[in-house]
Amino acid sequence: MVLEKHLKLMLPFFFFLTLQLFAQQQNIKGKVIDAKDNIPLNGVRVQSETEEVITNEEGEFVIENQKLPLTLKLSYIGYTTHEIVVRSFDLVTVKLNKESNQLDEILISSGYLSQKNLSFQVQFPKFPRNNYRTVLQPVLISY
Q1: Domain boundaries, the chain
Q2: SS in 3 state form for the chain?
Q3: Phi and psi at residue 31, in whole multiples of 5°?
């Protein structure tokens, strides 16, 4: 009798505890956009501790069955890598900034000669309209 009474009191507590444990794992939904133009970015790599996904054409992603707090690392070619900490299951919007690393000069080397600033001059042959048997003029390429 005493055991039944204790069991009846503890059963709702265990049920509530089980619900709380399962309720803590939910899907994280988000969107990644360009910080300057607010354009959705397609193909952004979004990594959590357990899963990695890629954004779709609208810049949206879903990471399933995650617990909070969660650290997400977002990376995309031409943009700075960004890390955020997600503390709620609300929609996450992340703005990525473009990297300012650009090439200043290009070095072309053939193994024998290297030259930094190349300039090309190209001449195309001219075809006379009335005489198709004319020998083509050579193409002049200089650098």
Answers
A1: 18-96
A2: CHHHHHHHHHHHHHHHHHHHHHHCCEEEEEEEEECCCCCECCCCEEECCCCEEECCCCCEEEEEEECCCEEEEEECCCECCEEEEECCCCCEEEEECECCCCCCCCCEECCCCEECCCCCEECCCCCCCCCCCCCCCCCCEEC
A3: -140, 140
With 0-12 CB in 10 A as exposed, 13-18 as middle and 19+ as buried, what is 32? buried
Output the CATH code of domain 18-96. Answer: 2.60.40.1120
pLDDT digits (tens, 9 = 90+) for 109-123: 666 655 556 565 656
Q: What is the pTM of this model?
A: 0.56
